[in-house]
Specification:
The protein is built from no helices and ten strands. It is an all-beta fold.
Length: about 110
Amino acid sequence: VQLQASGGGLVQAGGSLRLSCIASGFRLEYSAIGWFRQAPGKAREEISCTSSSGGMTYYVDSAKGRFTVSRDNANNTVYLQMNNLKPEDTAVYYCNQAPPEIWGQGTQVTVSA
């Protein structure tokens, strides 16, 4: 199963973006979902992981208080709301099952100073 992230773009520091994670032929509500990012020249890192029920969500320290994961089971979508974005958040963002399986195409987030 391949999950696709979308919704990236160019935003100024302090701005917000909402990323969406969708899948075809697979119900996201039955899986733990992770959000990941890979900055240029750096390894891919997991920035959040939410349980299948959505009752428990982990955030990496750099995302705490700024990023929020939510689920819309009716639309089979998981969102990553990102507020107060910083230039160091610039990366390609991916969603995947947790633990990750096949990587889909990510979405570029660029934050200008």
